């Protein structure tokens, strides 16, 4: 497995989100692991939550109108764009810092919708990742207490090795 | 952090034990991560349990004599030697397979005594590891159920990024 991956260049899936830990994971991956000269591909994956598909009552009993749900969805897309743009800039920056000469880091971007935990594991499998890199969190404190962390889930369920970077 | 590590060669701590998962973790590390040409150092760490320092009653009420505790300790040392020797052979083998030419992978061996969980985290810190690589287990089923897995502990407590390889 290892030898083949090394010869073809490795496919490194980096799960990015809004948090600092994911930025740090990407920075570590680019600075210490991924090598453009070796033909590696860095795949940036951002998973945004599914948009609300039906009107729901909020705490005060009001119905969310379609405009509100559309606005939430639009906001979620804007966040995705911002996160991905920042991550791509980091990839460009580190490619230059490494002094790789003519080699340029191959970067792919994927934005998926759904539960981050299951989507990341599914994509790692589907995209043939040799390694999954992520920060150690990925949910806020309360959601993490309820669901367990995204990284814990991926450690148990991803089909490839998982690298966890902490802040 | 990443840039410096890349320039100097990375220090990769691999926790090895008797299990297949640790062999697979080392193989993955050598085949996909560590690069002799880049000046990387692979540090093999085996942690063996502390020898019994006083006589204890076994289940049937007999005292372990000093000879028995000495024999247990001797056996533990033999296991350590066997694991480390196997790991070193893998390092030599993969160095050749990679066709690194004149570069030879720098390999250091450390055998420590104590609780694997705390010793691995302590050594990662003390040895200035850029990355800790390990299998996803590291205890048998019952001990893991009681203590949690070694890898879970290290993920939470190690001061460097942790890469978990599953079988």
What would a concise description of this structure say?
The structure is a homodimer of 167-residue chains. Chain A has 6 helices and 5 strands; from the N terminus they run αβαβαβαβααβ. With 167 residues, chain A is of the alpha/beta class.
Salient structural properties:
homodimer; 167 residues; alpha/beta; 6 helices; 5 strands
Structure description:
- The structure is a homodimer of 167-residue chains.
- Chain A is built from 6 helices and 5 strands; from the N terminus they run αβαβαβαβααβ.
- Chain A is α/β, with parallel strands linked by helices.
- Chain A has a single domain, classed as Rossmann fold.
- In chain A, strands 3-2-1-4-5 form a 5-stranded parallel beta sheet, with helices on both faces.
- In chain A, α2 packs parallel to α3 and α4 packs parallel to α6.
- Chain A is globular.
- The two termini of chain A are 30 Å apart.
- At the A-B interface, α1, α2 and β5 of A face α1, α2 and β5 of B.
- β5 of chain A pairs antiparallel with β5 of chain B.
Task: Break the fold down into its secondary structure elements and pairings.
2 copies of one chain form a homodimer.
Chain A: H1 2-8, E1 11-16, H2 20-33, E2 41-48, H3 66-97, E3 106-113, H4 116-126, E4 131-135, H5 141-147, H6 150-157, E5 162-165
Parallel strand pairs in A: 1-2, 1-4, 2-3, 4-5
């Amino acid at each position: 497995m290892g030898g083949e991956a090394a010869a073809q260049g490795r496919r490194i899936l980096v799960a990015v989100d809004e948090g600092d830990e994911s930025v740090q994971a990407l920075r570590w991956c680019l600075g210490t692991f991924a090598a453009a000269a070796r033909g590696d591909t860095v795949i940036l994956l951002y998973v945004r939550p599914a948009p609300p598909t039906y009107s729901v009552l909020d705490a005060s009993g009001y119905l969310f109108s379609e405009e509100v749900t559309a606005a939430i969805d639009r906001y979620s897309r804007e966040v995705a764009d911002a996160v991905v743009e920042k991550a791509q800039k980091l990839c460009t920056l580190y490619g230059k810092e490494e002094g790789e000469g003519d080699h340029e880091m191959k970067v792919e971007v994927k934005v998926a919708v759904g539960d981050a935990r299951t989507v990341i594991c599914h994509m790692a499998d589907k995209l043939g990742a040799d390694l999954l890199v992520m920060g150690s969190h990925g949910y806020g404190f309360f959601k993490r207490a309820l669901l367990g962390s995204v990284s814990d889930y991926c450690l148990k369920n991803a089909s490839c090795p998982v690298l966890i970077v902490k802040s």
